[in-house]
TrEMBL record:
Keywords: Cell membrane, Membrane, Transmembrane, Transmembrane helix. It is found in: Cell membrane. This is ABC transporter permease. GO terms for cellular component: plasma membrane. InterPro entries: ABC_transp_permease. The chain crosses the membrane at residues 16-39, 59-80, 92-108, 114-135, 147-167, 187-212, 233-258, 264-286, 293-312, 324-345. Its main location: membrane. Coiled coil: none annotated.
Length: 354
């Protein structure tokens, strides 16, 4: 019988070789799907590169997809570093967008600088509170945060649905279930296809690198993630650390709601997240919960998303084919992580090792 055994920490060279091999194998398998769809695989892959870097507009679209994924992944990273499994980034994203829209509805005539600052603060707080609810129950009663945060996603989605179809429904939308677009004084300034969210993301990356690697609370989060008993032994306030980590994690995810509402969609809707909250979980995990790798992997995923979107239009292939290509590449990348972390051994080999 075969058994799955944990391997020693792989060397950097091995990681690079395995991951590159996974990508090449994924492209080879995806080529079969492309051929069946009646397209030339080589031209299609060149098209993906062109769709991401072929012009300033396309590159801006790639960065536009990277920014929310990057900030969401950093938010997830904080919680995961503490072994607090925040599966609720989608809900925190939505609640941040709700807070953003609420500010505009209550104070529609504020000047742009004041409006932006207020929206950032409120979106952060809305996302933070949405995660602090399960964090409190986890710290106080030991509840399962995975299920708790997952269920809160659906509550947030139901709330936004109610706002879109009833309470905040735009009377000027001719009966369509739509929330009114934000006014000009509530939209992120942009130039050449790039908006202010890029600068915000850069600041967040630098702040999070310092927070996780240089600050006292970052150290406490890491220790708590390794062992709660060790954390208590050296005098770390476990409840306080959990709450602070939840505040930062949920707050960052909430801020993405503000970035997307004011910089991309222009209005709150149930489709605003696009599933990025779940993708961020994969990005954070593949990055080994390290900030620099989150930046790299977020960009790689953005290239994948933008490239798939472009080839769907440029090559007139069905959207399902583009999604299958994405899924195959992602599957092989995840599989490579298994190869790096584990190995299969037989009963005989296992007994010899033991």
């Amino acid at each position: 019988m075969l058994h799955i055994v944990k391997k020693e920490v792989p060397k950097t060279r091995e990681k690079i070789i395995v991951r590159l091999s996974a990508v090449l194998a994924a492209l080879a398998v995806a080529s079969i799907i492309v051929l069946v769809a009646g397209a030339n695989p080589l031209e299609l892959y060149i098209g993906i590169v062109q769709g991401c870097f072929g012009s300033l507009y396309r590159f801006a679209a790639t960065i536009e997809k990277m920014v929310p994924l990057l900030v969401l992944s950093l938010g997830v990273l904080v919680a995961f570093k503490m072994r607090f499994w925040n599966i609720g980034a989608e809900g925190q994203f939505l609640m941040g967008a709700v807070g953003t829209t609420l500010v505009v509805r209550l104070l529609p005539d504020l000047p742009l600088p004041v409006m932006l600052v207020l929206m950032i603060i409120v979106s952060f707080l809305f996302g933070a509170v949405w995660l602090m609810i399960p964090a409190f129950f986890k710290a106080r009663f030991g509840t399962n945060e995975t299920l708790f945060t997952l269920m809160l996603n659906y509550i947030a989605l139901t709330l936004v649905t109610a706002l879109q179809y009833d309470f905040w429904k735009d009377p000027a939308a001719n009966g369509m279930p739509k929330i009114a677009n934000l006014p000009e004084n509530a939209l992120l300034p942009s130039a050449g296809g790039f908006n202010l969210s890029i600068l915000m993301a850069v600041i967040i990356v630098l702040a999070m690198y310092y927070f996780m690697n240089r600050s006292k609370i970052g150290f406490e989060i890491a220790v708590l993630g390794e062992s709660e008993n060790t954390a208590r032994y050296i005098g770390i306030n476990v409840t306080r650390t959990i709450i602070i980590a939840a505040l930062v994690s949920g707050g960052l995810c909430g801020m993405v709601g503000m970035m997307q509402t004011t910089g991309v969609s222009g209005a709150l809707s149930t489709e605003i997240t696009g599933g990025l909250g779940f993708t961020a979980i994969i990005v954070a995990w593949l990055s080994g919960l390290k900030v620099p790798f989150v930046v790299v992997n977020s960009f790689a995923f953005a290239v994948l998303l933008q490239g798939a979107s472009y080839i769907q239009t440029a090559f007139q292939i069905p959207g399902s084919v583009a999604e299958m290509i994405q899924a195959i590449i992602l599957f092989f990348i995840l599989g490579s992580e298994f190869v790096l972390q584990y190995r299969l051994v037989s009963d005989k080999t296992k007994s010899e090792v033991a």
